[in-house]
Each structure stands twice: as structure tokens, then as C-alpha cells.
Specification:
By secondary structure, the protein is an all-alpha fold. The protein has a domain at about 20-80. It has helices spanning about 5-15, 20-45, 50-55, 60-65, 70-80. The longest helix has 26 residues, at about 20-45. It starts with 5 loop residues before the first helix and ends in a 5-residue tail after the last helix. The relative contact order is 0.14.
Length: about 90
């Protein structure tokens, strides 16, 4: 079977239903959210007090990193930090 052309792929994609709004919102926050979480995790790895403060208030930690907290980002940060202070 031959590879589809870009035009054929575009036609196929155009037939798909739009993505659910929640997926679109998650995709929009993914880049900045992931970068913020990476920075917070790096800080937490080098500073036990900072890690404890983050775990005590994940929402403020994310806001301090420049992103608005969402359930997805909060769960991701909690998971990456290990869930509870040492």
C-alpha cells in the first residue's frame, strides 16, 4: 500500500470530529505546566524545605511557578514529588 500524500492525510484529518474541550485545555496547559513542574521538582530535589513547602501547598507552588493549578497539574506535581514531605 502506498504512503498517503499530505493532501490525503489532511482530507482524512478533516473528517475527524473536533477534540473534546477538556483535551484542548489540557494540551494548552501541558507545555507551560510541564516546564513549571520540572523546575519545581528540580528545586525540591535540592532543597528539603522547599519540597516540604510545595507538598504543604501545591496550588501556591504552581502559581509561584507561573501556572494556574488544575487537577491534572496538581496530580502530576504530587506524583513527581513523592506525595508527602520527608
Amino acid at each position: 500500500m502506498p504512503e498517503p500524500t499530505e493532501e490525503q492525510l489532511a482530507d482524512l484529518i478533516a473528517t475527524l470530529r473536533p477534540a473534546p474541550a477538556a483535551w484542548v485545555e489540557a494540551a494548552i496547559e501541558l507545555g507551560p505546566g510541564r516546564a513549571a513542574i520540572d523546575g519545581l521538582v528540580a528545586l525540591a530535589a535540592s532543597d528539603a524545605e522547599a519540597r516540604a513547602a510545595m507538598l504543604a501547598n501545591l496550588e501556591d507552588a504552581l502559581r509561584g511557578a507561573g501556572v494556574e493549578p488544575s487537577v491534572t497539574l496538581l496530580e502530576s506535581l504530587r506524583s513527581r514529588l513523592g506525595g508527602s514531605p520527608e
